[in-house]
Design goal:
- The complex is a heterodimer of chains A (about 170) and B (about 160).
- In chain A, a hairpin with a 4-residue loop joins strand 3 and strand 4.
- Chain A has one helix and twelve strands, in the order αββββββββββββ.
- Chain A is mainly beta and about 170 residues long.
- In chain B, about 10% of the residues lie in helices and about 45% in strands.
- Chain B is elongated and about 100 Å long.
- Classes of the chains: A mainly beta (about 170), B mainly beta (about 160).
- At the A-B interface, strand 1, strand 2, strand 5 and strand 11 of A face strand 1, strand 2, strand 3, strand 9 and strand 10 of B.
- Strand 1 of chain A pairs parallel with strand 2 of chain B, so a sheet runs across the interface.
Chain lengths: ~170, ~160
């Protein structure tokens, strides 16, 4: 029995050996490799931009009932931002320390991206005021609504504001 | 006198014929074998790919590229050899790494996204490579990221190029 088993084993070995010998060369899998190390990095990035402007707000009509000039409103400017950081905010400010006329701004958050619009901001001085909070790893946009107001007592005149938007860590 | 010369010529010719038939030869068998040659190499590592800028209002940041490295192959195996590429680990969602291998001996697959190609799912980057050598072919990497994916501290990935049949 042992001898038979040995013969069978030998036969199998011979068959395998013959099979291997007659296999065409291309039947074998060939492989060679080479490696490279790639270093990847994404820096912190905060971008802000405007579409539209410069704009002119002209207070030139009177509300007959109140006897005061009607406010001038413009909502043609669009604010765009992109940030890959967390908890960022967008602030707005004017370069005039003591404006003669009232200028208000509001982010109408109908656009895309994260962020919560603050209530309408009055630019009463040249300090930055929060406009949008909670900007988080996104690209977004919103419309900006400007409102200019004047009282009769303030008379006639003009004023130019340089409005600055800043996206910062919030 | 004339007779003596003729006899001398005849005798001389007889010796010459004998010398001509007295050659011997030796032979050798020369066995020539060309083994399978299957080689691929790269010229080093690409520069760090760092995303630094983008456009306001756009989630996709400005991609960065590197084409400073090359690869070379030599193979005498067949005419349907290919090169595949894979990473040691997939990239997180929101980050994309593509590779493009130029080729003159085969057909480049163009720009191939290998962000999720690991050892079990390597992607073909050059196919139909003919026997021969293709040296100094450009490897181009492009890395892009979404703002919504956040920042990425310096991260390394090993790219394996495999010459295979």
């Amino acid at each position: 029995m042992k001898r038979i088993l040995k013969n069978i084993t030998l036969d199998i070995v011979i068959v395998i050996a013959l099979h291997g010998a007659f296999l065409p060369q291309h039947a074998y899998s060939q492989q060679a490799t080479s490696t490279q190390v790639v270093t990847l990095r994404v820096m912190e990035l905060n971008k802000i931009d405007l579409v539209g402007g410069p704009l002119t707000l002209q207070v030139n009509s009177i509300n007959d009932d109140a006897g005061e000039p009607n406010p001038a409103i413009d909502a043609s400017t669009k604010l765009l931002w992109t940030s890959n950081g967390d908890a960022r905010k967008i602030a707005v400010g004017t370069d005039i320390a003591s404006p003669r006329f009232i200028l208000k701004i509001e982010a109408e958050k109908s656009g895309s991206g994260t962020g919560v619009a603050e209530p309408e901001v009055t630019l009463s001085d040249n300090s930055p005021h929060d406009l949008i909070l909670g900007v988080q790893r996104s690209a977004g946009s919103c419309k900006l609504k400007f409102t200019a107001m004047a009282s009769v007592e303030e008379g006639v005149g003009s004023e130019s504001h340089l409005i600055t938007y800043t996206i910062t860590g919030g | 006198m004339k007779k003596s010369i003729v006899v001398a010529i005849i005798i001389g010719s007889a010796f010459a014929v004998q010398a001509a038939f007295a050659q011997s030869t030796a032979t050798q068998s020369v066995n020539l074998t060309v083994s399978t040659v299957y080689k691929i190499s790269t010229s080093g590592n690409p520069a760090a790919l760092t995303v630094t800028t983008g456009s306001a209002g756009t989630d996709a940041l400005t991609s960065v590229s590197d084409n400073s490295t090359t690869y070379s192959i030599t193979q005498n195996y067949g005419n349907a050899v290919k090169v595949t590429a894979n990473l040691d680990a997939a990239l997180q969602a929101g980050y994309t790494l593509t590779i493009n291998l130029a080729s003159t001996k085969g057909t480049s697959a163009g720009t191939v996204n290998i962000s999720n190609a690991t050892s079990g799912s390597a992607l073909s980057v050059v196919t139909g490579i003919n026997r021969g050598a293709d040296a100094g072919q450009t490897i181009s990497y492009t890395f892009s990221a979404l703002a919504s994916a956040g920042m990425l501290t310096s991260t390394t990935r090993t790219v394996t190029l495999t010459l295979t049949n």
